[in-house]
Amino acid sequence: MPVVHVRMDNRLIHGQILVSWNAEMKIDHIIVTNDKVASDPIQVTLLKAVAPIGAEVSVLSIEDCVAYCNSPKAENENIFIIAKFPEDGVALVDAGLDMPVLNLGNQAYVRGSKKLSNTVFLTEVGVKALKSAHENGIHITCRMMPADSEEEFWPKIAKAYPDWVA
Amino acid sequence: MVGVLVVAHGEMASGLLDAARMIVGDQEALLDLSLQEMEDVEGLMDKVEQAISRIDTGEGVLVLVDLPGASPFNASARIAMQREGIEVVTGVNLPMLAELLVMRDGSSLEECVDIAKEAGISGVRTLSEILKKK
Hints:
The structure holds two protein chains of two kinds. Chain A is of the alpha/beta class.
């Protein structure tokens, strides 16, 4: 399986990923995916420049990310995908990425978001996307670090945002 | 004088400034910023920009960050790539900060980058190396 992990993290590549996740998984290729980030030359340059030793970094639109992961080039790689927002992670699966688990990483506060924990603030768009993924049988986890629990996280989201889930 | 801004995870930056003050005394044009757990990179970029404008006297600002590729670095780098007179050095430690603070008066931004990098690297030693050297 080429894609070993999908993390939804609006800090994109940062300390926890470069240090903890890279030590846990043998990451060959980090794909950062979000349509806006992929079209910002400064962010693309910077993200590629901070690639950990031994790994390649790509910054792709959602469509290009799915196309790459389903291509023969991806077959021999361990790919770690970082989708910026929950809706980006869910869009990957909706567009045909074969991945049964989506992991919520850092979702720092953005305008319109509400707090779920110290590290996760979700927007209505994000919650609705996660709801549809849950209804389609996707297992949702919330792990900042590799050692965090892999238990199903959806009930906590549903409880925290009753108005948006209804 | 080149301004110095330290940006790091948790309380590291304020702790380093506190430690540096014990060694080199009170300083002007020196600020720290903490990345809080709940903060996004764009929010941190706003704070970095505000801090830079407070300490930039026209000779530039050197931003010292902890981990290369982590959020304090990413926020600072995105500003430095779009603006003249800002440089970023990673791996901030006390030898780097203390040396920079005593040497920066009369040094250009480019010279400060070299001073910081050199002092940061040469500040990492082992006891056995230090004992053998004499």
